[in-house]
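Attaching the record inline, Q. Sequence:
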Amino acid sequence: MQSSHFFSSAFPPTVRKALGLLAVGWISLLAFIYHIHVTFPGTINSNNAIRVTLVGLGICYFVYKIKPWARSLCIFFNLGIIVINGLFLFIRISSLGLSSFALSFHALMNCLFFALCTYYLLAKPTAAFYKEHAATSRKDHATEDQ
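Structure, as predicted:
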Protein backbone atom coordinates (compact mmCIF):
# COMPACT_ATOMS: atom_id res chain seq x y z
CA MET A 1 0.00 0.00 0.00
CA GLN A 2 1.25 3.45 -0.85
CA SER A 3 2.15 5.90 1.90
CA SER A 4 -0.05 8.98 2.19
CA HIS A 5 1.37 12.42 2.84
CA PHE A 6 -0.51 15.02 4.83
CA PHE A 7 -0.46 17.72 2.16
CA SER A 8 -1.27 15.39 -0.72
CA SER A 9 -4.74 14.94 -2.12
CA ALA A 10 -4.81 11.43 -0.61
CA PHE A 11 -6.51 12.92 2.46
CA PRO A 12 -9.92 14.58 2.06
CA PRO A 13 -10.10 18.22 3.24
CA THR A 14 -12.02 17.28 6.40
CA VAL A 15 -9.30 14.79 7.39
CA ARG A 16 -6.54 17.34 6.75
CA LYS A 17 -8.39 19.93 8.85
CA ALA A 18 -8.95 17.41 11.66
CA LEU A 19 -5.29 16.37 11.67
CA GLY A 20 -4.07 19.96 11.62
CA LEU A 21 -6.40 20.99 14.43
CA LEU A 22 -5.41 17.91 16.41
CA ALA A 23 -1.71 18.83 16.22
CA VAL A 24 -2.42 22.50 17.04
CA GLY A 25 -4.71 21.45 19.90
CA TRP A 26 -2.12 19.20 21.51
CA ILE A 27 0.61 21.84 21.14
CA SER A 28 -1.74 24.37 22.72
CA LEU A 29 -2.62 21.96 25.53
CA LEU A 30 1.05 21.39 26.33
CA ALA A 31 1.66 25.14 26.28
CA PHE A 32 -1.35 25.52 28.59
CA ILE A 33 0.13 23.02 31.04
CA TYR A 34 3.40 24.96 30.99
CA HIS A 35 1.43 28.21 31.41
CA ILE A 36 -0.25 26.80 34.53
CA HIS A 37 3.14 25.65 35.83
CA VAL A 38 4.60 29.14 35.40
CA THR A 39 1.56 30.90 36.88
CA PHE A 40 1.17 28.51 39.83
CA PRO A 41 4.61 26.98 40.54
CA GLY A 42 4.57 23.48 41.97
CA THR A 43 1.08 22.55 40.76
CA ILE A 44 2.18 20.47 37.77
CA ASN A 45 4.28 17.35 38.27
CA SER A 46 6.83 16.95 35.45
CA ASN A 47 6.02 13.22 35.18
CA ASN A 48 2.38 14.05 34.48
CA ALA A 49 3.40 16.55 31.81
CA ILE A 50 5.57 13.88 30.17
CA ARG A 51 2.66 11.41 30.25
CA VAL A 52 0.34 13.94 28.63
CA THR A 53 2.97 14.58 25.95
CA LEU A 54 3.36 10.86 25.21
CA VAL A 55 -0.41 10.33 25.03
CA GLY A 56 -0.72 13.31 22.68
CA LEU A 57 2.07 12.06 20.42
CA GLY A 58 0.56 8.57 20.36
CA ILE A 59 -2.90 9.79 19.48
CA CYS A 60 -1.60 12.12 16.75
CA TYR A 61 0.57 9.35 15.26
CA PHE A 62 -2.16 6.72 15.07
CA VAL A 63 -4.83 9.14 13.85
CA TYR A 64 -2.39 10.21 11.11
CA LYS A 65 -1.83 6.55 10.25
CA ILE A 66 -5.62 6.34 9.60
CA LYS A 67 -6.48 3.80 12.29
CA PRO A 68 -10.26 3.79 12.89
CA TRP A 69 -9.85 2.86 16.57
CA ALA A 70 -7.49 5.84 17.00
CA ARG A 71 -10.14 8.15 15.53
CA SER A 72 -12.64 6.90 18.12
CA LEU A 73 -10.09 7.20 20.93
CA CYS A 74 -9.19 10.70 19.76
CA ILE A 75 -12.84 11.79 19.83
CA PHE A 76 -13.15 10.39 23.37
CA PHE A 77 -9.99 12.22 24.53
CA ASN A 78 -11.05 15.43 22.78
CA LEU A 79 -14.37 15.43 24.63
CA GLY A 80 -12.53 14.90 27.92
CA ILE A 81 -10.15 17.76 27.18
CA ILE A 82 -13.05 20.04 26.25
CA VAL A 83 -14.87 19.21 29.51
CA ILE A 84 -11.75 19.72 31.67
CA ASN A 85 -10.89 23.04 30.01
CA GLY A 86 -14.55 24.08 30.20
CA LEU A 87 -14.61 23.35 33.92
CA PHE A 88 -11.38 25.30 34.32
CA LEU A 89 -13.00 28.22 32.50
CA PHE A 90 -16.15 27.99 34.60
CA ILE A 91 -14.17 27.97 37.84
CA ARG A 92 -11.90 30.84 36.74
CA ILE A 93 -14.77 33.01 35.50
CA SER A 94 -17.10 32.28 38.43
CA SER A 95 -14.44 33.02 41.04
CA LEU A 96 -14.09 36.59 42.19
CA GLY A 97 -10.30 36.51 42.09
CA LEU A 98 -9.84 36.17 38.34
CA SER A 99 -6.19 37.15 38.26
CA SER A 100 -4.99 35.90 34.89
CA PHE A 101 -7.06 36.57 31.80
CA ALA A 102 -4.36 34.81 29.75
CA LEU A 103 -5.04 31.43 31.41
CA SER A 104 -8.77 31.74 30.76
CA PHE A 105 -8.16 32.73 27.15
CA HIS A 106 -5.75 29.81 26.72
CA ALA A 107 -8.35 27.38 28.10
CA LEU A 108 -10.95 28.85 25.74
CA MET A 109 -8.59 28.36 22.78
CA ASN A 110 -8.01 24.73 23.81
CA CYS A 111 -11.78 24.17 23.88
CA LEU A 112 -12.09 25.72 20.43
CA PHE A 113 -9.24 23.70 18.86
CA PHE A 114 -10.44 20.38 20.24
CA ALA A 115 -14.11 21.12 19.49
CA LEU A 116 -13.31 21.89 15.85
CA CYS A 117 -11.08 18.82 15.62
CA THR A 118 -13.89 16.67 17.00
CA TYR A 119 -16.35 18.22 14.56
CA TYR A 120 -14.12 17.35 11.60
CA LEU A 121 -13.41 13.85 12.94
CA LEU A 122 -17.17 13.24 13.20
CA ALA A 123 -17.87 14.60 9.70
CA LYS A 124 -19.28 12.07 7.24
CA PRO A 125 -16.42 12.36 4.70
CA THR A 126 -13.89 11.72 7.47
CA ALA A 127 -15.76 8.70 8.81
CA ALA A 128 -16.14 7.31 5.29
CA PHE A 129 -12.43 7.81 4.60
CA TYR A 130 -11.43 5.96 7.78
CA LYS A 131 -13.85 3.09 7.04
CA GLU A 132 -12.66 2.82 3.45
CA HIS A 133 -9.03 2.85 4.52
CA ALA A 134 -9.69 0.15 7.15
CA ALA A 135 -11.39 -2.06 4.56
CA THR A 136 -8.51 -1.56 2.12
CA SER A 137 -5.97 -2.37 4.83
CA ARG A 138 -7.79 -5.58 5.76
CA LYS A 139 -7.97 -6.58 2.10
CA ASP A 140 -4.23 -5.90 1.63
CA HIS A 141 -3.36 -7.95 4.72
CA ALA A 142 -5.54 -10.82 3.50
CA THR A 143 -3.78 -10.91 0.12
CA GLU A 144 -0.35 -10.78 1.80
CA ASP A 145 -1.21 -13.78 3.98
CA GLN A 146 -2.06 -15.95 0.97
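The CA atoms of residues 28 and 43 lie 18 Å apart. The chain has five helices and no strands.

More tomorrow.
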